[in-house]
Amino acid sequence: MIVADSFEQVRSVVTGKAGLAPTMGYLHEGHLSLFRAAREKSDTVVASIFVNPLQFGPDDDLSRYPRDLDRDHRLAEEAGVDVLFMPPVDEMYPVPPATRIVLDGVADYFEGAYRPGHFEGVAIVVAKLFAGIQPQSAYFGRKDAQQLAVVHRLARDLSFPVEVVPVSTVREADGLALSSRNRFLTAPQRQQALALSRGLLAAADAAEKGELGGLALESLVIAEVDDSGLDLEYVALADSATAQPRAILEGESFLAVAARVGETRLIDNVAFSVEGDLVTVDRGQTLEGPSVLEEE
Amino acid sequence: MIVADSFEQVRSVVTGKAGLAPTMGYLHEGHLSLFRAAREKSDTVVASIFVNPLQFGPDDDLSRYPRDLDRDHRLAEEAGVDVLFMPPVDEMYPVPPATRIVLDGVADYFEGAYRPGHFEGVAIVVAKLFAGIQPQSAYFGRKDAQQLAVVHRLARDLSFPVEVVPVSTVREADGLALSSRNRFLTAPQRQQALALSRGLLAAADAAEKGELGGLALESLVIAEVDDSGLDLEYVALADSATAQPRAILEGESFLAVAARVGETRLIDNVAFSVEGDLVTVDRGQTLEGPSVLEEE
């Protein structure tokens, strides 16, 4: 595995079809599933690790975002990454960019509303990675459902010749969606946090049994979150492509939730696909044992 | 010469280093000088012709922008273009883009102030051409001095691996900068329009003789324009990289003017480079006989 710190170096070592998995590091099995998906379709798998300051707001957790570069290096290499791109901030932003990329509509609600400026930061860093690395395919986790919609739209609107590939959420054996931020949770908070996946999975069950009402599905999540003592930000059913709220489950949709426990903000979702009377749910994949995040 | 109507087709025929010259068609010697500059540095020269609706405001001249595709085809082929990319609007914008690219600072003054939204339109179409064609070099005329600053900044901020190459303005024998919009000028208007280049060239002479004051240089242009009866929009000395106004001639600068004659809006500029006491001016290159625009 080659470690690169500049776009030019990445381009100089890529051969054939490049598959890109952008991350902020502190890798876990969710990231590894991106790398493995990239491995299947690519000649050169490029993973990036960059904690992008522009996607953090003033009240966000940029300064305490977890880092463990030795473990990241080992995990990326084991998962078949060919090029690990770890740019310093001054490679990505040699000067503060004058260019802003704004997505209307798709970035308006949910994360866009609760984290002003977040998707502008995501958009510019993803655009830079697409422009500077020129991947044929790029892998993003379904856990960030709205980000996936933003990236799909960005790639299409700017004519990047890249296939944006969604990869299922990975969950701990008890249902908690993997997140680098899980490491901030105390044992009691971690128990509380299970309300998110419990609520979403209950809604997934109800949808498979024919419940298509957005409010009804959202209520199942709200009930679990309220009981748990988490501080709920939003629960919403939305169109997967446009990230606009939906009243009725149809087409490609996601049911997303965001909540705070103490200082930590958690998000999770399940993805639905409705064809005729058939409702298919992507609940994510569940690990059999503890994730690498639980190892310390 | 291959005529392509999709990004995919362009990518499929490009070999080696691609040089891109984006245009809006109705080609003249200014465009041809872009193609020839591209020819020198590229294995495949791609010229695009696309009258981009997003860079025209509601009061601009989109509907009457001149077109002559047969002549364009002939001139492009003669100038050594390998691929002529003429995308229909629905290849560029299959749906109205949700993505907006905004440049702060560099797009604030001059054209940015007089044509609100213009540089957002320029930025998205140039970003799409860079993303979809992946050129190693791209050629833009110095006549659009602020656009050149915008494109330089966009390419850098988004990490496109493209060299943005400025190409000198081309002028008719009497000094008028070539522009597809010149065809709208009546004979008397064309005489009036000469005030722009006369003023700029007078300022260039003064600068070479040591006049470094922005107001003094601007005054030389204003005097000519006022005498001519043109409707002046702005005259400004600006930093070539940031497109911010400058009070004193230094470093890389341009002196730009915009004015209306009847329904037609004209712009022109000269570019300065100051090193120590030495002032070098790019006045553009002057044709010996009438341009192809005068042929009809």
Short descriptors:
homodimer; 296 residues; alpha/beta; Rossmann fold; Pantoate--beta-alanine Ligase, Chain: A,domain 2; 2 domains; 6-stranded parallel β-sheet; 4-stranded antiparallel β-sheet; 9 helices; 35% helix; 25% strand
Note down, in words, how this protein is organized.
Two copies of one chain form a homodimer. Chain A is of the alpha/beta class and 296 residues long. Chain A has two domains: 2-170, HUPs (Rossmann fold), CATH 3.40.50.620; 180-282, Pantoate-beta-alanine ligase, C-terminal domain (Pantoate--beta-alanine Ligase, Chain: A,domain 2), CATH 3.30.1300.10. Helix content of chain A is 35%, strand content 25%. Chain A has nine helices and 13 strands. Chain A has helices spanning 7-13, 29-41, 69-78, 89-92, 111-114, 118-133, 145-157, 187-208, 214-228, and strands spanning 2-4, 18-23, 44-49, 83-85, 99-103, 137-141, 163-167, 170-171, 231-239, 252-261, 264-275, 278-282, 285-286. In chain A, strands 1-4-3-2-6-7 form a six-stranded parallel β-sheet, with helices on both faces. The first copy, chain A, has a four-stranded antiparallel β-sheet with strand order 9-10-11-12, with helices on one face. In chain A, strands 8-13 form a two-stranded parallel ribbon. At the A-B interface, helix 1, strand 5, helix 6 and helix 7 of A face helix 1, strand 5, helix 6 and helix 7 of B. Strand 5 of chain A pairs antiparallel with strand 5 (99-103) of chain B, so a sheet runs across the interface.
